[in-house]
Amino acid sequence: MSKPETHEFQTEISQLLDLMINSLYSQKEIFLRELISNSSDAIDKRRFAALTDASLLTDDEELAVIITTDADAKTLTVSDNGIGMSRDEVIENIGTIARSGTRKFMQAIEDAKGKDDVNLIGQFGVGFYSVFMVADKVSLTSRKAGSDAAVLWESEGKGEYTLADASMDNAGTSITLHLCEDAGEFLDDFRLRHIVNKYSEHISLPIKMLGAAPLDDEGKPIEDAEREFETVNSGTAIWARSKSEVSDEEYQQFYQSLSYDPEPPLSTLHHKVEGNLEYTSLLFIPKKAPFDLWNRETRKGIKLYVRRIFIMDDAEHLMPNYLRFVKGVIDSADLPLNVSREILQSDRDIQKIKGRAVKRVLDELKRIAKDEPESYQSFWSEFGQVLKEGVVEDMANKDSITPLLRFASTHTDSSEQTVSLDDYTSRMPEDQEAIYFITAESYQAAKGSPHLEMFAKKDLEVLLLSDPVDEWLVNSLFEYEGKSLKSVAKGDLELTDDEKQAQEDQEKEMADLTAKLKDALGDAVKDVRLSLRLTESPACLVADSNDPGANLERIMKAMGQDAPESKPILELNPDHALIKKLDPAQGDFDDWAKVLFDQAALSEGAQIKDPAGYVKRINRLLAA
Ligand code: ADP
């Protein structure tokens, strides 16, 4: 056998190990959950690989996870006959973390200082390293299915590890933990069984431990007799059992194993569908958003199985993006086992299964909104922004999603989004033509916008939209129950005949002023006109009906996209003292024009192009 080679861990791993060893003290037992879960994944992979290459799995081999201990050596070993790893894969998987998650994980651990946040470990996919919470040395031997070579990886978790050749009779991985002084509890058979029960009951593979020694005639254990392995979990897939046989606690544990969410789910939806298209779905709607809800690389929540055999994670074809927070399993009886992502995408049965799963989730949300408004409200504050994407993304279900939306409004006192479109339409005056909304960078900017002044005076409700996705939402949601959605910051206002007449009269009167202002502002504006929107502010900016509007342009720029820059219309409040006093003949008229324009932008929360110029002009006017 060749001499072991010493390798250094990637810096991040060393830091991570340091955190594991020094910062995480509680619930050390979860290392076992992580190891079993890795083994179970590895066995799933072997089974899957054997579908296309039968030589990778012989019929007489029972796939299982085996846990053994050695009290004298103070070691605990978890072995599996899963897919195994080649030497390169060991380096790649156990010595390097290519994932961007690591840094974030460490940040999260640091942020959570003092808090009991070990759930983060699983979420970030750094599970293996949790062994160093209980072991001061770890030896891993692995042999990849289909290869004869085995490798021994060893580390004390302190910056480096060694690799050496090894030999193993069968494919798989065996991990031996040399337990720390204070981790002796993990040698205890009873304690280990308890942990397996707690975390791995749902694992649909046998987890085996040595049974008790056989008894002699007098009923005493025979010391040196061979002990048999026995299965310590039930080993059946939870979703394959009938609903009435599964306890809430079991559902919750299974949910936790999928999500690492310490809280129970908001809803559990378990259905067996029979007939032409046979499948089982077990879906969970979480209460709390995971830290990485917005990370596009995050694995999606649905695992696909075919007749209990795991096929793939992250089956994006089973749940649309806007329901990416839904976790669960779909097990189809009809799909071919060698189904690929490409096939999934075009498979009609999968489309049907997905369609029904989406409907189940949306129906459940509708039910919660109706029966448990408070729960729905907290669901909305966690996932509302994501659900809003559905209106844009899923035309087929738009009508089911729209009533689930909640908004902030001028008719409520808080920034919390609590108003549904049904609430809105039920209290709108009969002659009101449209559902009014404003979009802005923040709730405060929306609420304080001068565009609302006339609406406030007329007591018309305006929805206050300030999530980035809202701009797309209102571009897809043209109407609700026959009422169109209309931005208060765009196009013309609906006016009564009297108002129109009054406006025309004033426009004639002040035509000279508006024309001169337009000259002074030049390229910055599309037009200058009088406004009936305003009661308190001197001026505001309005987008032309077909222009994207300032907020959308700002968001697109922030996303690094080209925003077609459209010019705003400056609207003046003819009754405001400042406007009344404006005189184009004044020497400082130019300053006034630009200050009015910049102030209009500022008052709706926008940025002004030349802040220094603005300050200079204000100072000149003040000094005068
Ligand atoms: P995660 O399981 O979340 O990917 P881990 O740190 O627990 O993160 O494991 C890293 C990788 O090491 C796994 O993705 C897998 O490829 C590999 N691995 C870990 N344990 C085993 C095992 N028992 N058999 C085969 N591969 C394994």
Quick overview of this protein structure:
This protein has 624 residues and is α+β, with helices and mostly antiparallel strands.
What does this structure look like?
The chain has 21 helices and 22 strands. The chain is 37% helix and 18% strand. It folds into four domains: 5-231, 2-Layer Sandwich (Heat Shock Protein 90); 238-371, Ribosomal Protein S5, domain 2, CATH 3.30.230.80; 406-487, 3-Layer(aba) Sandwich (Rossmann fold); 497-544 and 565-623, Up-down Bundle (Four Helix Bundle (Hemerythrin (Met), subunit A)), CATH 1.20.120. It is an alpha+beta fold and 624 residues long. Helix 9 runs antiparallel to helix 10 and helix 10 crosses helix 15 (469-476). A hairpin with a 4-residue loop joins strand 5 and strand 6 (160-166). The strands form four sheets. A nine-stranded mixed β-sheet has the order 1-6-5-4-7-3-2-8-9. Bound molecules: adenosine-5'-diphosphate (ADP). The site of adenosine-5'-diphosphate has 16 residues, from helix 2 and helix 3.
